[in-house]
Amino acid sequence: MKDSNPPSSYLSAQKNHINEIVDIHLESLADDFLPQLGKTVLTTYYNAFIVHNPIIIVKMENKVVGFAALGIHPIDIRSLFLRHYKQIICTLLRKPFLWGQAVWLAVPRKHATIYPEIQFIAVQKRYRGLSLGSNLIAHTQRCLSERNQTYLQVKTHDTNTLTNHFYQKNGFVVTGKEKRCNKTFHIYSKKIDE
Ligand SMILES: CC(C)(COP(=O)(O)OP(=O)(O)OC[C@H]1O[C@@H](n2cnc3c(N)ncnc32)[C@H](O)[C@@H]1OP(=O)(O)O)[C@@H](O)C(=O)NCCC(=O)NCCS
Fold first, then answer.
1. pTM of this prediction?
2. Which end of the chain has the smaller Cβ count within 10 Å, N or C?
3. Which CATH class is domain 8-191?
4. What residue's CA is closest to ligand 1, atom 40?
5. In sequence order, what are the beta bridge partners of 174?
6. C-alpha span between 88 and 178 (Å, rounded)
7. Mutation probe of ligand 1 site: the residue of 162, 167, 169, 178 with most atoms within 8 A of C-beta
8. Residue nearest to ligand 1 atom 21, measured at CA
9. Which residue's CA is the nearest one to ligand 1's atom 33?
């Protein structure tokens, strides 16, 4: 793949890209809470997300191969829970280890993130290592700069060596920690250059 990379293009996702975004999310972040709830719930999530938040996609060979979902006005996950409550309860009964995350997400937090945050970023497995992820971050910064935002945040599990390396390589520094369901997440921040 590396020797003959086809050209890549970066653009703002539209509703018609959501199916491809969801497929990449399901493949790349399979262990997270939302993918565990299934494709329908994840599709509803992105349909709500994209109304108020930009999603940058990268295309290669005319298909979406990666995306960065930028939370500027994060959606209230409780409305998603209400809409799909039957499916979610069935999933939680089958996968009781998800209860902690479900409760954590449903409880309103006092100290919500004040800066725009990369909610999700993923590149299809076979296209990784081609700097697409780093370029997606550069494009999210450009998008925020146009909106006069000064900082970008992202959270990742403290033990995930690869993602911690990826964010540090892209100029993020750890500015805090968040405890969630017996796991610790590094909060990374980056000042956006004008
Ligand atoms: C993180 C991710 C978006 C990076 O995309 P990418 O296009 O490979 O990124 P780049 O080519 O710009 O950078 C590659 C670097 O990312 C690191 N990396 C992070 N996660 C990786 C993963 N799951 N697989 C391979 N490399 C990964 C590599 O170590 C590499 O470092 P190096 O350049 O020093 O060798 C991509 O690996 C991915 O989709 N991972 C799965 C989803 C995920 O973990 N998202 C982040 C959640 S917090």
1. 0.93
2. C
3. alpha beta
4. 122
5. 188
6. 25
7. 162
8. 162
9. 129
